[in-house]
Amino acid sequence: MNTLRVTLSLLFTGLVVAAGAAGAEPPQVRHRMPAPSLPEADTNCTTMPDAISGFAAPSPPNIRPQVRRDARAAAPGVAQEAIAIAAPAPPAPPAPSAPVMYQPTAKVMAAAPAAGYIIGGVTMQNVDTSRYAHRDTNPVHQTAADPVSTFSIDVDTGSYTNVRHMLNQGQLPPADAVRSEEFINYFNYGYAAPKDRSRPFSVTTEFSPSPWNPDRQLLLVGIQGYTVPASDIPAANLVFLVDVSGSMNEPDKLPLLKASLKQIVPKLRAQDRISLVTYAGSTCVALPATAGDQHAKINAAIDALGAGGSTNGAAGIDLAYAQAAKGFIKGGVNRVILATDGDFNVGTVGVEQLKDRIADKRRSGIALTTLGFGEGNYNDDMAVTLADAGNGSHHYIDSLEEGRRVLVDEMSATLMTIAKDVKIQMEFNPGVVGEYRLIGYEKRMLAREDFNNDAVDAGEIGAGANVTALYEITLKGAKGASVDPLRYGAEAPATKGNELGFLRLRYKSPEGGASQLIEQPLSASVTSPSERMRFAAAVAAFADNLRGGKYTEGFGYDKVAELARTAQGKDDGGYRAGMARLAELAGGMQTPVAGTR
């Protein structure tokens, strides 16, 4: 269910109209007070912050709120963010006047429930205020004119699970919510691990025919980080920064967040340090740094979390980093984990301002991971941007199972960085490759010169994590070319005709220093697609269909599901089968094209 938030003026619309019609004076309303730009941290979390941004704190519990029960019943959840108002003193005899109809603002209209409801004669309809950054899909490049492709790796998976949540709710996602690389990287492709730790990851490549166009090929580049058992992770200093604002008071938000956090508690050790920082209208330390083996104390602090108030995320970030710095473990894992729906509405709220703030703080050796929750007002753009700036990853938690997967099953990959600023550069041989297109990674594209510039930030890889990139390739002279050749362009010589291209990777150790370089030529020999290649292609086609199907040429959801089912292999957890099922659900929800069945 979408977020249900109603401002104070709207709650009293019904009372104003009813009072006017009866010739009575409207009830008194509290005046909006200016919200502080940066609330001070409160170490006493027993008192809930402001109930709604910019308004006075709730009245004492012995004063009953004047809110009609029928209005609450018509709009479930409204009472959570309503402000208790003291009953006014008996009014003086009112002067006759006509009732004034309240005209809701656009902001108020955006906060109404999905089905809509009526309060004081005003019909409210919900508008989804979720925010996704728009990025154009990577285009096709002619190798003769532009032979080099450079990008940063990305281990985020939030786009896939967020879209999974939408599809399971019976909704097709907006195109901007779909990021192909996060779909592909959600899955494990069984790459061989590096033989030793002299290099943090291994590199696997494949070159096979495309399933949606036999005149083209797919190039797969996969990297696999070395594994570290959870018990061998260095001592961890973890600060969970928890959004407890009013917008989090929905079943798929704070309750799911709390249940997910409790999954990790039994895995914490005596050498670990855990803190809980909360933020709403103000911030507080709900649990100071506590030894990880104090499970009962940590669980009690999680259980005590409750939602209410505005969302001063900027102040919460400052306090969380201060707490992490206070408990910093040299040589250990130092990380802030921000759990939120991303709906920052007090203090510093601009994405770029927060990005700069996080980028400055990552230099202290404290990383940031973001966990997204909920729908309706979900700020995906904010969560993704902050994680990227904080040398961390972004995940969307759509179920308790996913919460356990991220925080427990993949604890090493989520928490422990084994290589940072990992960049990939592919130079295609213009004598062999006519065209190429990188599938996904739009938010991670780099300039060619950025590859050798160690000052340019790039993505991190965690222990045991794997990253996959796919290129769609058209060989020189093949029928599958998308772009006409230049009339006056010079023909590229067929140099090193047995090479498809040259692959370069750069990375730094987690401690920093100069980057290390890995180079290897890639063969132009086309091979039969492996199981991993077929499944990765199915996931890429699924994402492209959800974005409009521009590049998959009629390879629809039914074919995606069929290809995925033939490439399930050993499917621990049933994740691959789940993707095939999602493709079928999406196919059932799409609008048929006129003249087709």
What does it look like?
- It contains 17 helices and 19 strands.
- The protein is of the alpha/beta class and 597 residues long.
- Strands 1-10-9-8-11-12-13 form a seven-stranded mixed β-sheet. The protein has a five-stranded antiparallel β-sheet with strand order 4-15-17-7-6.
- Helix 11 (351-362) links the parallel strand 11 (333-340) and strand 12 (367-372).
- Helix 8 packs parallel to helix 13 (400-409), helix 11 (351-362) packs parallel to helix 12 and helix 16 (557-566) runs antiparallel to helix 17 (575-589).
- The chain is globular and about 70 Å long.
Strand content: 15-25%
- Biggest sheet descriptor: 7 strands, mixed
The residue-averaged pLDDT reads 81
Radius of gyration: 27 Å
Shape: globular
- Class based on secondary structure composition and strand pairing: alpha/beta
Keywords:
17 helices; disordered N terminus; 597 residues; five-stranded antiparallel beta sheet; 19 strands; seven-stranded mixed beta sheet; disordered C terminus; alpha/beta
How are the SSEs placed, and which strands pair?
Blueprint (H helix, E strand, L loop, with lengths): L7 H4 L1 H10 L18 E2 L26 H6 L3 H4 L24 H5 L6 E3 L2 E3 L16 E2 L5 E5 L5 H11 L11 H5 L16 E9 L7 E9 L10 E8 L10 H11 L8 E7 L3 E9 L3 H9 L9 H14 L6 E8 L10 H12 L4 E6 L7 H10 L4 E3 L3 H10 L1 H5 L1 E12 L4 E7 L19 E4 L3 E10 L23 E11 L2 E12 L7 H16 L10 H10 L8 H15 L8
Parallel strand pairs: 1-10, 8-9, 8-11, 11-12, 12-13
Antiparallel strand pairs: 2-3, 4-15, 5-14, 6-7, 7-17, 9-10, 14-16, 14-18, 15-17, 18-19
Helix pairs in contact: 8-13, 11-12, 15-16, 15-17, 16-17
